[in-house]
Amino acid sequence: MKKIAVALLSFMAISVGLKAQDGFVKTPQGDLVKNVTNKPGDKIKVNDVVTFNLTQKTEKDSVLGSTYTMGRPIKIQVQESKNAADLMDIFPVLAEKDSALVRIPTDSLFKGHDDQRPPFLPKGSYLVCQVKIERVQTLDDAMAERNKIIDSMKTNETAERNKYIADHKLVLKTTASGLQYVITKPSLKHKPLAGDTVLVNYVGRFLNGQIFDTSIQTEAEKAGLNQPGRTYEPYKFVVGKGNVVAGWDEGLLLLGNGAKATFVIPSSLAYGQEGYSDIPPFATLVFDLELAGIKPVKHTPPAAKPAAKKPGIKKHAVAKKKS
């Protein structure tokens, strides 16, 4: 009963707070919040997943950042507030489609590292945030929606990859992990082992044919790649140690020195469902590459297995009795 009473008091402190000027109320973390709208419906709860737009300004109305400019809102799970900057203590006073003004004291933002305070956020000032709640979901609903989207993207990736292979009439081998490859120039020279340093020339493409990276200058120029300061030479790295995407680590161990190949690498062996930089989520990548050199290291031979004992009759069992 005591815990329930404490929880109710905490919620009331958030909901009512200490009244300030212009209709703002003060939250336990020291933020000042004012509802611009007061939409009907359930208030946001801890563990709900909230999608919202955010614009940050100085008190002089200079815009510091905006999700509207970025082109996508923020989506987060609501948790217990840890500090004034996380905005978590304003959500319980808002409902879906609500808008609010939030004034965050900059002294709390730069507490302990005031040397990092920019001049446009002086001591005693506030960071002004405009918050618009676009959507509120339970955690279960949000996870179900996310899984549905992921499954759809996986299905689309597989369909697009199969179409690419068919359209380009590629005859590929497929490994147990899902790497698909064809050796276009075989080599009988030795293959690298995990831990060797290799040098690789490559051209990397998306399934639409767009080149996103290459170690070859002429290919970069043809593709119009802007890579200032890039030195065009074979890419050098230790293979089999996780320094590159998994598809490379696996596929290069299949090639003899000097061999050329095409790798069709599913996202599960590349940059996955998160993507990376200019590479979108669930992107199958196609690489035309050449193993241009191997610098082997000394490898410890595997320990010999102990010889298996042959079944037989123990000596003492057949020893003749002495007369």
Low-pLDDT stretches are: 1-20, 312-323
Order of helices and strands: HEEEEEHEEHEHEEEEHEHEEH
What is the alpha-carbon Rg in Å?
31 Å
The general outline is elongated
Give the overall pLDDT as a whole number. 87
Number of strands: 15
- The first-to-last residue Cα distance is 93 Å
% residues in beta strands: 25-35%
Structural class: alpha+beta
**Level of helix content?**
10-25%
For the sheet with most strands, the description reads:
8 strands, antiparallel
| Discrete helix count | 7
Question: How would you characterize the overall build of this protein?
Answer:
- The protein is of the alpha+beta class.
- Helices cover 21% and strands 27% of the residues.
- The chain has helices at residues 2-15, 67-70, 106-109, 139-167, 217-223, 246-251, 315-318; strands at 18-19, 25-26, 32-35, 49-57, 63-66, 74-77, 99-105, 126-137, 173-174, 180-185, 197-205, 211-214, 235-238, 260-265, 285-295.
- Strands 1, 2, 3, 4, 5, 6, 7 and 8 form an 8-stranded antiparallel sheet that branches.
- A hairpin with a 5-residue loop joins strand 11 and strand 12 (211-214).
- The longest helix has 29 residues, at 139-167.
- The chain starts with a helix and ends in a 5-residue tail after the last helix.
- The model is unreliable at 1-20 and 312-323 (pLDDT under 50).
